[in-house]
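Task: sequence design from structure.
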């Protein structure tokens, strides 16, 4: 029987060959990894990441026109925390240690925060809140971690939360701040009321408090306390951070979420320059996120300074005048609705606002006592029927449209128009030209002017047939003076006022005497400035210039930007027309029979201007929804001085001044006192400068 051939060596050879091939491939692969891609992988292992952080700096200051500091930054001791890669457990340990050193406010801690913290502090008890059936569903992947977490939150009771001590709550308040920020971005744990003892102990224990620092912070300091403060504006706190409605805008410009930014008015309007140049630090980390080093790329610098047009001495004096006269007027009969007054002083040649004041009477809900609060912003936010102060614009509109000329005279007899109440002046004033009509404040003269502008003819007990475009003609002309449009002041939220409906057409007679559309007191200031400077509507400004931050706190930095006078438009009036209005306005204040002569007749600075009384409806805080409209009188005054070379323009508004027939004249009393104060302060400044010059010589 032949012997069977053994195939084992063949199989072994095949196995050895296969192993040899695989080993060769492995060697080849290792060679490729080391030789071809070795450097790439080595770089990957040693790769570093750069995380750039922009650290905030103090904001710029605000100074008045005489370089008196209005808003500054006061230094504060501060405790901060920077997460440089700590885990949640590590942060909790630091928070616990820090809570034993400092007293921390807990008013920001919410119930949801307490529940989350309780779960962390008492994990075993938290697990007991989940039933075995629910855990089984979780193990079968029919529910998730979020579902279990929601069940735990729902089942935590007040008794559970009572297990948290006051120390625990303070620890939570600290941890909450630590956990809210981005990596490498400092979070302010405490910057209000940090005691010297707290500051020192934290400093001594920094090695036991990784990420914590005892450093310096700042807060806004108002050198004149509440004076002008609403106009200066507010900034957010570090706990508020960026406003939610503008967070994308700020984040795109390199802000951190907890940065303090302008929230209102000048702080908001000039945020871009007040914020300063942030310090830029690059944090170098390894692939695991561990911090290797910090590198200062560029030093920060404090924000730029705003030089305001406001004269704080004048501002304070004007506020005191308003307070005095408002309380005095409030003691007159029929003043149950009177609660506020406004004043704007402006340089008519540049638009610079020298004073912008307002006061409002408010009742304390607890004590029921009345007190005054600042309402300077009411000069741009509130609008009213202003009365006869607009008659200068009416006369000039009449001239421009050809409705009247220097020879035009109208009889001041009342108008009896079909379907319209009798339209008249406060008394019969005779046959008047434009100058006389301004002096004695004739309504009828303005009515006839409006009828002529509308191409109509007045006939006794007949309807007025006016062109419908009379509304646009008059309003467009008024707008060229600044009435009924935004003045362009460098503040947000300026209001333009309400326009009455264009029907019936006879209502246009109310428009030309200031008893139809509503205007703000800032619009009145721009309007009278336009007349005072012979026809140029100037943009009102609160900021004169922006300066670089000075290295020496006692000095001023270099001018970064200045704002030259900005002419928004020319009204397009002949000088002879303007001269006649100037003459009429002079007679209002300087000639017997003028409506303001009793108050300004002996003024040494040659004032010119116009008074206003408007029959209006009350729409203030005392009127509730559904209440009937209440009749009231608004008082106003516009003026400038000296009349032939104006350097100051003024607008005064006293809305809802009185009901009935007793006029307390608060508008004129305020106006005279304000004008006197301006020129007295000016003379004092001139005398001081002359004395200083004599000493230097």
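Answer:
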């Amino acid at each position: 029987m032949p012997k069977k051939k053994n195939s084992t060596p063949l199989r072994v050879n095949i196995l050895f060959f296969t192993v040899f091939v695989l080993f060769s491939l492995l060697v080849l692969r290792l060679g490729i990894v080391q030789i071809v891609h070795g450097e790439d992988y080595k770089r990957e292992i040693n790769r570093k990441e750069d995380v750039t952080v922009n650290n905030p700096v103090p904001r710029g200051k605000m100074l008045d026109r005489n370089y008196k500091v209005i808003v500054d930054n006061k230094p504060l001791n501060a405790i901060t925390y920077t997460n440089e890669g700590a885990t949640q457990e590590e942060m909790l340990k630091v928070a616990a240690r820090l809570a034993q050193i400092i007293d921390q406010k807990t008013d920001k801690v919410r119930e949801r925060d307490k529940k989350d913290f309780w779960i962390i502090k008492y994990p075993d008890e938290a697990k007991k809140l989940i039933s075995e059936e629910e855990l089984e569903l979780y193990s079968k992947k029919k529910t998730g971690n979020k579902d279990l977490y929601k069940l735990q939150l729902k089942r935590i009771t007040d008794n559970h939360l009572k297990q948290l001590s006051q120390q625990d709550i303070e620890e939570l308040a600290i941890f909450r701040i630590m956990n809210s920020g981005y990596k490498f971005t400092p979070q302010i744990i405490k910057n209000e009321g940090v005691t010297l003892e707290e500051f020192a102990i934290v400093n001594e224990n920094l090695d036991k408090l990784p990420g914590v620092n005892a450093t310096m912070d700042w807060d806004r300091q108002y050198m004149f306390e509440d004076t002008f403060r609403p106009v200066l504006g507010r900034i957010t706190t570090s706990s508020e951070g960026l406003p939610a409605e503008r967070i994308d805008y700020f984040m795109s410009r390199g802000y951190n979420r907890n940065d303090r930014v302008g929230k209102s008015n000048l702080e908001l309007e000039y945020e871009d320059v007040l914020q300063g140049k942030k310090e830029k630090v690059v944090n170098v980390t390894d692939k695991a996120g561990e911090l290797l080093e910090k590198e200062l790329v560029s030093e920060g610098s404090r924000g730029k300074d705003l030089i305001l047009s406001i004269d704080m001495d004048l501002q304070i004096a004007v506020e005191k005048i308003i307070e005095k006269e408002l309380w005095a007027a409030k003691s007159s009969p029929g003043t149950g609705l009177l609660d506020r007054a406004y004043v704007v002083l402006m340089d008519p040649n540049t638009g610079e606002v020298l004073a912008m004041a307002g006061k409002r009477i408010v009742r304390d809900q607890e004590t029921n006592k009345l007190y005054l609060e600042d309402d300077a912003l009411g000069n741009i936010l509130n609008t009213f029927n202003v009365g006869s102060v607009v008659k200068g614009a009416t006369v000039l509109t009449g001239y421009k449209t050809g409705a009247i000329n220097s020879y035009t005279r109208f009889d001041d007899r009342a108008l009896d128009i079909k379907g319209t109440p009798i339209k008249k002046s406060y008394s019969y004033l005779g046959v008047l030209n434009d100058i006389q009509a301004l002096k004695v404040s004739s309504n009828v003269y303005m009515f006839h002017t409006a009828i002529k502008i509308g191409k109509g003819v007045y006939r006794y007990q007949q309807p007025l047939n006016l062109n419908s475009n009379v509304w646009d003609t008059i309003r467009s002309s008024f707008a060229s003076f600044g009435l009924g449009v935004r003045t362009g002041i460098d503040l947000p939220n300026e209001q333009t006022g309400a326009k009455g409906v264009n029907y019936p057409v006879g209502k246009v007679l109310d428009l030309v005497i200031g008893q139809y559309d509503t205007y703000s007191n800032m619009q009145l200031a721009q309007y009278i400035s336009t007349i005072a400077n012979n026809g140029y509507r100037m943009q009102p400004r609160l900021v004169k210039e922006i300066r670089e931050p000075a290295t020496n706190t006692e000095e001023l930095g270099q001018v970064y930007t200045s704002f030259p006078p900005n002419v928004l438009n020319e009204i397009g009036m002949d000088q002879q027309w303007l001269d006649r209005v100037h003459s009429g306005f002079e007679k209002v204040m300087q000639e017997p029979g003028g409506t303001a002569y009793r108050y300004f007749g002996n003024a040494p600075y040659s004032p010119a201007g116009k008074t206003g009384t408007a029959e209006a409806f009350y729409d203030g805080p005392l009127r509730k929804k559904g209440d009937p409209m209440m009749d009231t009188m608004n008082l106003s005054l516009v003026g400038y001085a000296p009349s032939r070379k104006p350097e100051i323009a003024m607008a005064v508004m006293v809305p809802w001044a009185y009901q009935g027939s007793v006029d307390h004249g608060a508008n004129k009393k305020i106006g005279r006192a304000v004008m006197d104060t301006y020129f007295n302060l000016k003379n004092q400044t001139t005398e001081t400068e002359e004395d200083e010059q004599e000493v230097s010589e």
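The chain has three domains: 47-83+214-308, 86-182, 313-688.
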